[in-house]
Amino acid sequence: MELWFTEKQTPEFGITAKIRETLVTEKTEYQDLALIDTEEFGRMLVLDGMVMTTVKDEFVYHEMAAHPALVTHPDPKQVLVVGGGDGGVIREVIKHPQVEKAVLAEIDGKVIAYSKQYLPEIAGQLDHPRVDVQVGDGYMHIIQSKDKYDVIIVDSTEPVGPAAPLFERGFYQGIHEALKEDGIFVAQTDNPWFKADLIQKVNRDVKDIFPIVRVYGANIPTYPSGLWTFTMGSKKYDPLEVEEASVPELDTRYYTPRLHRAAFVLPRFVEDLLK
Amino acid sequence: MELWFTEKQTPEFGITAKIRETLVTEKTEYQDLALIDTEEFGRMLVLDGMVMTTVKDEFVYHEMAAHPALVTHPDPKQVLVVGGGDGGVIREVIKHPQVEKAVLAEIDGKVIAYSKQYLPEIAGQLDHPRVDVQVGDGYMHIIQSKDKYDVIIVDSTEPVGPAAPLFERGFYQGIHEALKEDGIFVAQTDNPWFKADLIQKVNRDVKDIFPIVRVYGANIPTYPSGLWTFTMGSKKYDPLEVEEASVPELDTRYYTPRLHRAAFVLPRFVEDLLK
């Protein structure tokens, strides 16, 4: 008997992966959570039916969520990750020695607990002494923080369910206030093939609030369309002014000094979305 | 009743697309051919169960197969496309006014005929006066051509079935001889997530024959992993020495002057494959 997991990435298109073993299926307080061991991508975290991360390709998302902003900021001491309970972004954040404290604000404690249990390659740094894990509402954490962070990374699910408020204009205003005067934030902003409207809306909202707004892409095989975007809003520093020679050589599998600026060069149809 | 087309991109992973209408299913002399109208990607050409092109995302592959080499060569007059019976690469080739003649050598006349009938947006330039369509074996065409072409583009299927010889070392040697003394060729070389061995093998073979070898990538949602690679072998001109300001503004939806060099900046795990 063969068991396959299928995610409908749109109502009319999906990916399908052969299952080796189903480890967890649970309705948490916030969402449907599954941990599946797949033949092609290894262990896979699924929330509300959507692939969040897999052992085989997780490094792309986690590196590309963390390093472009942390390299652009000259001295990122205080960092906040909103969401990201699997711990992958945190693992990348603490590769930067200037980071004194990395706070994780994840609403669903079950995501953290199961990631620690089943995804140790990803979640293994959540107990690091420079990491402060706070189980709670990231939106509230943002609203209650003023002039506090150098870098904020929004590692949310899609804008349905618990993450919906994290795509509202008011949230970006809150982020602006939670950042120091030279702070930078970055958010995952889905893909341009199926969610062009979302990318456009976030781009407009962030441009109203931050003087420097840049969008970059990364190839993630298990995410819809394989081309994922991130939107960066910055008060002072421009990622495109970072010289390749000044980018530190980090222990990475995707991000490189050469890729830092190249990732911001987008296909014409994506450039056109952002005009 | 819902009908879905599923391509197993590996034995354990695939994509699945809801079908609006099945237009053609036929066993040609060379392969299984299907033309399906899908809800998400529009009409789709499928050969031996593998998606070759779709109306929604075809522009990425066709532009990226054609323009980097044609822009790198300062005066591409004689161009050969091996395979590519859907006509998409030819459509891009003739956007370059210097091209005097674009020869298409496609082994399967049925691909050409059905593409003209069902994919006119893609195949519509096959009757252009500067295009010479030859139904026949591309390998033999290469072997019989000496010092003839400025640019050769290999638009093949995967290295199974009729396209298998197009990934052999002897084929690249034949291409070298079919090119003029300053010629350039480019071939599609699959994806680095599932076919790393193939990319490595082609890279080694081409490096033995051509002094300049470069690999670049493009995001194609319906191709395995969403990250497709192309390998370019050049006798004289280096695509990385092309200045952005000298790239013509073509009528494209993916390729841009800005992307010309950025497409060659690869993730670290792909760089490592090519060492």
UniProtKB/TrEMBL annotation, chains A, B:
<dbReference type="GO" id="GO:0005829">
    <property type="term" value="C:cytosol"/>
</dbReference>
<feature type="binding site">
    <location>
        <begin position="137"/>
        <end position="138"/>
    </location>
    <ligand>
        <name>S-methyl-5'-thioadenosine</name>
    </ligand>
</feature>
<keyword id="KW-0963">Cytoplasm</keyword>
<dbReference type="Pfam" id="PF17284">
    <property type="entry name" value="Spermine_synt_N"/>
</dbReference>
<dbReference type="Pfam" id="PF01564">
    <property type="entry name" value="Spermine_synth"/>
</dbReference>
<keyword id="KW-0620">Polyamine biosynthesis</keyword>
<feature type="domain" description="PABS">
    <location>
        <begin position="2"/>
        <end position="235"/>
    </location>
</feature>
<dbReference type="InterPro" id="IPR037163">
    <property type="entry name" value="Spermidine_synt_N_sf"/>
</dbReference>
<dbReference type="InterPro" id="IPR001045">
    <property type="entry name" value="Spermi_synthase"/>
</dbReference>
<feature type="binding site">
    <location>
        <position position="86"/>
    </location>
    <ligand>
        <name>spermidine</name>
    </ligand>
</feature>
<feature type="binding site">
    <location>
        <position position="162"/>
    </location>
    <ligand>
        <name>S-methyl-5'-thioadenosine</name>
    </ligand>
</feature>
<feature type="binding site">
    <location>
        <position position="106"/>
    </location>
    <ligand>
        <name>S-methyl-5'-thioadenosine</name>
    </ligand>
</feature>
<dbReference type="InterPro" id="IPR029063">
    <property type="entry name" value="SAM-dependent_MTases_sf"/>
</dbReference>
<feature type="active site" description="Proton acceptor">
    <location>
        <position position="155"/>
    </location>
</feature>
<comment type="subunit">
    <text>Homodimer or homotetramer.</text>
</comment>
<keyword id="KW-0808">Transferase</keyword>
<feature type="binding site">
    <location>
        <begin position="155"/>
        <end position="158"/>
    </location>
    <ligand>
        <name>spermidine</name>
    </ligand>
</feature>
<comment type="function">
    <text>Catalyzes the irreversible transfer of a propylamine group from the amino donor S-adenosylmethioninamine (decarboxy-AdoMet) to putrescine (1,4-diaminobutane) to yield spermidine.</text>
</comment>
<dbReference type="InterPro" id="IPR035246">
    <property type="entry name" value="Spermidine_synt_N"/>
</dbReference>
<feature type="binding site">
    <location>
        <position position="62"/>
    </location>
    <ligand>
        <name>spermidine</name>
    </ligand>
</feature>
<feature type="binding site">
    <location>
        <position position="31"/>
    </location>
    <ligand>
        <name>S-methyl-5'-thioadenosine</name>
    </ligand>
</feature>
<dbReference type="InterPro" id="IPR030373">
    <property type="entry name" value="PABS_CS"/>
</dbReference>
<keyword id="KW-0745">Spermidine biosynthesis</keyword>
<dbReference type="GO" id="GO:0004766">
    <property type="term" value="F:spermidine synthase activity"/>
</dbReference>
<comment type="pathway">
    <text>Amine and polyamine biosynthesis; spermidine biosynthesis; spermidine from putrescine: step 1/1.</text>
</comment>
<protein>
    <recommendedName>
        <fullName>Polyamine aminopropyltransferase</fullName>
        <ecNumber>2.5.1.16</ecNumber>
    </recommendedName>
</protein>
<dbReference type="GO" id="GO:0008295">
    <property type="term" value="P:spermidine biosynthetic process"/>
</dbReference>
<dbReference type="InterPro" id="IPR030374">
    <property type="entry name" value="PABS"/>
</dbReference>
<comment type="similarity">
    <text>Belongs to the spermidine/spermine synthase family.</text>
</comment>
